[in-house]
Amino acid sequence: MAVIIGLTGGIASGKSTVSTMLKERAITVIDADVEAKRAVEKGEPAYDEIVSHFGQEILLENGEINRQKLGSIVFYSEEERMMLNSIVHPAVRRRMNEQKDEAVANGEKMVVLDIPLLFESKLTYMVDYTVLVYVNKENQLQRLMKRNGFDANEANARIRSQMLLEEKVQLADFLIDNNGELASTEKQLDDLLLQLKDKQ
Ligand code: ATP
Asked: Quick one: which residues bind ATP (predicted)?
């Protein structure tokens, strides 16, 4: 039997860093953000639903969805945001499930679903175990400021707009502490993979 892992984190906590390490270890990682983009490409069922609800005016000249325009519509309207989510979320879940099933059918013993909002969107039922990439508030702030060029106010506002990592710590089955050097993160990941192998 294959074990399905849900990988999550908070803004700038190091989830992409860990996801890259997993891929380097030849583990299939299915990225919810990538699937969310693909799910609304021209030709996809969700694309048709979005155009039929929001109208042709949210399209670019090449027929693709103008994500910025759609983003600003849903930013200002909770109702429209819920409508968009009700179209996109099931499509993303379907795509992730299909790819997971395919990987398992190919004999893979471990598949990772990389889902930033795993807890917020209550998607833990999709996975066997949840893994949180954790950093303390100070490192999160410093790394976010450095990566995105934000000042402390802006970085703090971004951190506060999400479920706090401390809260996610309570919910996760396993933690990877990414406060230290990357080598330490890598070592924890390898130890965790060994533990999870036993659960297959
Ligand atoms: P987001 O979800 O916001 O995209 P993330 O959780 O995927 O972020 P990363 O992009 O992996 O986070 O890491 C955030 C920043 O911190 C990056 O610039 C990355 O290079 C850096 N970083 C990650 N891990 C470490 C580490 N252990 N030591 C120093 N810097 C790190």
From this structure: 12-17
